[in-house]
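Task: sequence in, structure out. Protein: Amidohydrolase family protein.
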Amino acid sequence: MIDGTGADPVPGQAVLVEDGRIAAVGGEPPAGAEVLDLSGLHLTPGLIDAHVHLGLSSDLDKLSTSRQLSVAEIAADMFANCRRTLDEGFTTVRDTGGIDDGLARVVADGRIPGPRILHCGPLLAQTGGHGYLGAEWDSADDWAARQIPGLVALSLLSDGPDAVRRNAREAFRRGAGFLKMCVTGGVVSRHDKLTDTQFTHDEIATAVAEARARGTYVTVHAHNNEGLRTAIEAGAKCVEHGSAIDAEMATLMAEKGVALVPTLAVAHALLKDSTEAGLPAHIGERVGHVIDGQADAIRAARAAGVLIGSGSDYVGPKQAHRGRELLLRSEIESPMQALVSATRDNARVLRIDAEVGTIEPGKLADLTVFGSDPLAEPLVFDDPGQVKLVLQRGRVVKDIR
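Result:
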């Protein structure tokens, strides 16, 4: 058992599950208990992916620009992605833009299999900024028509504090649990550069005020420190990617209690072939700096004491191998730290650490079982076939032992 706290693995450990929660760790199974024999296997907390885009499970060009997909096809791709994510051992995800609340609801009530979904609904983007994927010749006014209520909603265009306030409230009305804003340009962008800053201090502060009014937070997409600094000064509490974070910025983040969610897997995938996601080939040209920058950011953030989570950020129809994020993190830090980031620390980033993230009494029995030891051989993280058993709230949802 690898409990997710960073403690050494414990061999031959029993975990008692009652009513979907961990009742005890250690000891012998009580008389009459149903026993799952995991001899020779490796038990961890259910994995958490803190940066997913389940609503972008289809070819992005067909989905956002050319409108070649039916609602049925889009929904089928999303449902299949949910099933695959759960089968790969991820029992919780945080969707950072792309779904409306309908998907989270049908997964939560068991109508389709999938991970627990926390989401921001549509993210907040400025006109022509990251998060807007319309073609140059399209009117920005037409962007809202690309949404499919209850299913897909990538972004709400928000220019000025009043529009930000209105759209933040609209996102919460649709079931958002937090807000996301894009405060710099991005890799998967049609209209901006990584060095661009987006949203003003007042616009970001307005979103922060709306989030605080609901007891939650704002996370920001950021690839340069100028935009990130503005966001932190305005009260944002989490940053996605953070590919320019240095020692000075990491110190500021630690002082302000701002978490970091690196996203290495998508960068490597786009560098290999961005067209597989339905994106132009030239997108890959932006990625090299982002990969090296995120590795440096992880090291700087760790040294400063920043809370560091883990996210895959996959987009498009090929979102398998979410565990590759843990493999890539293992190459920068250690397999244990990669696992802790994807379990306990992600639960802290998502503010659900009282419920999940570690194997401890009182936590929900979300558990993942690997066929081989991922700490000894991190390639196991990147092999879906090594995920032999998955439990969600104490219920077996995958078993290929």
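Residues 287-304 form the longest helix (18 residues).
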